[in-house]
Specification:
With about 200 residues, this protein is mainly alpha-helical. It is built from eight helices and three strands; from the N terminus they run αααααβββααα. β1 and β2 form a beta hairpin. The longest helix is centred in the N-terminal third of the chain and has 25 residues.
Length: about 200
Amino acid sequence: MAFELPDLPYDYEALQPFMSKETLEYHHDKHHKAYVDNGNKLAAEAGMDGLSLEEVVKQSHGKNAGLFNNAAQHYNHVHFWKWMKKGGGGTSLPGALAKAIDSDLGGYDKFRADFINAGATQFGSGWAWLAVRNGKLEIMKTPNGENPLIHDAKPILGVDVWEHSYYIDYRNARPKYLEAFVDSLINWDYVLELYEQAS
C-alpha cells in the first residue's frame, strides 16, 4: 500500500508552548513528507509497494538502506504525531499501563528518568522508546530511523530526538525537550491502545 502523509491530529498551534507551530510545520510538512515521497519511490523500485508499512520496514532492514530509512521514519512519525496531544503528559496514566510500568519498569518516576535518559544519551539522531518485548515493557533507544520492530519488539511510545524535532524550540537543550514531552505532551490514551494491541 502507498505511504501517505497523515494530517496532524491537532492544529499547528495546539502543542504550544512545548512544541511550536514552526517546528510542526517543518517537521510534519517538510521532513515527514520527504520520507513519504522517497519511501513511495523506493518501495515501488524494490517491488515492495504492495506490502504493509510494517512489512516494508522489516523486510528492507539490512537489505535496502534507502528504503528502510524512509519507511521506518514514516512508520515512526505516523505514530509520533499521535503520541502527543494538547494537555498531555503527566502522571495520571490509564490503570493497565500504570500497573505494567510499576511491575516492569520500577514505577512512574523511574520510567520517566530512564526514558528521558535514553533520549538524552542517544548519540546523534535517533529515538527513545517504550516497547513491549516478550510480554514485558522495555525502554530502548535506536539510532537514526531504527525502531523496536526490527528488535522483535512492538513500540508503544517513542520520542524523536533528531535535531529537527527540537532545535527551533530548545536549541541544543535536548533534555529540556524530553522533559516537556514526558510531562506535557504524551497522549497516554494512544499509548494504552498500542499496549493493548501488543499484549
